[in-house]
Queue: 3 jobs
Job 1
Amino acid sequence: MNILNTHIHELIFNIDKDAPSEYMKRWIDLKTKCENGENKHIIEQLKGYCNLNTNRVLPYLNRYEGGLGGNDNLVNKQIRFKGFQCDDNNDIILHEIISTDNEKWTYDELDDLIRAFIKMANFNIQAECVNGRIVMFNKNMLDDNYLENDNEF
C-alpha cells in the first residue's frame, strides 16, 4: 500500500534508555555520522540489510543531509536524514519521505527500512538495543487553525 499523501511520515530510531555507556557512545557516533551529511557508507550498509529489492537498488541521495532516492525532486521518491539537532534528543530520524507521481513509497518499503536500520545500527553498536518506528501526522496539523477547523479531512 502506498503511503498516505495526506500525512507526513518519519522513521525514528532510538537506543534503549538503559543502554550501557559504551553502547551510548557508539550510538552517538552513529548519529553524528548520519546527521553530518557524510553518510554514504551508512546508506550502503543499510541497503545491505534490506530484504526488498526496491530498497536495495535505491541510489544514494546526493544532498547535504544524504539519504535514499533519486536526485530529481519531481520524478524520484526520496527519504533524507534529519540534520544535526541542537538539543538533547538522541533519536536518529529519516524524514522528508517524499513520493512523486512516478515513484511512490509503500508502507512495506518503510517497514523494510526500519528493520534494516535497526539491524545495521545494532551491528555498529555491537548490541541489540536499537528500536524504530514510523511516526505520521496529518499535514493539516501544520495549519494554525487546525483545531478550530470542523471540516472533515
Job 2
Amino acid sequence: MYRTALALVLSTQAAAALAGACSITGTAFDAGGRPARDAVVRLTDLQTRQVYYSAADTNAAFLFTGLDAGGSGRYRIELISPPTIVTGTKIPTRSIVGTTREFGCTSGARQDVHAQVY
C-alpha cells in the first residue's frame, strides 16, 4: 500500500514537471543563408545564466528539450563558430557568429539562428 501511494505521488509530481516544460527547435544558417550543418548551437537562460549546447544535424536542425515554460524563463540562442587556433597559442577558440533576440519559451517554440558577417 505504501509503495503504491509513493509511486502515485511521484508520478503526479513528474507529470506536473513535464507540463511546465517546453522544447525549442530551429535551424542554423551560415552567412550566405545556407543551412549550417553540424553547427554548434548554445542556448542561454538569461535569468539563471545556465547554458545548454546542441549540435545541428545534417539538415541543420537543432533541438533543446525539458526547458522551463514559466513566464520568467527568457532565452537567447547563439551560433558558435568552429574551433580555430589563434596564432601563437595552442588553444582552440570559438566565437559567436549569430544570435537570436531574447525570447520566452512556450510549448513548441521555434527559433532560427543566422550567422552574421562582421
Job 3
Amino acid sequence: MDKIHIESLDVLKSKSDLIKQRDQVFDDMNKVIDILQKSPCFPSLLWAWVFDVIREIYENYQGPQEFNDEMVPEGVTLKQIFDKFWDDCDSLGLNMDHGGEVIDETIRDWMRENDFLVALEDDSWLDEAVEPSV
C-alpha cells in the first residue's frame, strides 16, 4: 500500500521562509564580497573581521554597564578608533592564521594601550560578584 505524505501548511511555510532566507543570504554575501574585492586593504577579509571586532567592542562598552569593568571613554568615536587602527595595523601582526580569540585579545589590548578601552574606577560590583552570599 502506498503511503500518503501530507505536510502541514506550517512546515511548507517554514521551508518557503528558509528558502527565501537562504536566497537573501546568498545575495547579501555576494554584495559583501563585491565590496571587499574593491577595498584597497589586503587581506580585505581580515580587515572586515578585525573591524567587526572593534565595532562590537565599541558598541558593547559604551558607558558603565553592569558586569563590564571597562568602557569606551565618552567622546571617543568609532571613526577615531578606525583611523588609529589604520595607522597601527601593520604593527599588530594580525593574519588569517590567528583564531578569533587571538584577534579579539590583540584588539582589546591595542584598544587599552590607546585609551579606547579604559578601566572603570568603580568596579565594586566585581567584589559582590566574587563574594559568596551567606
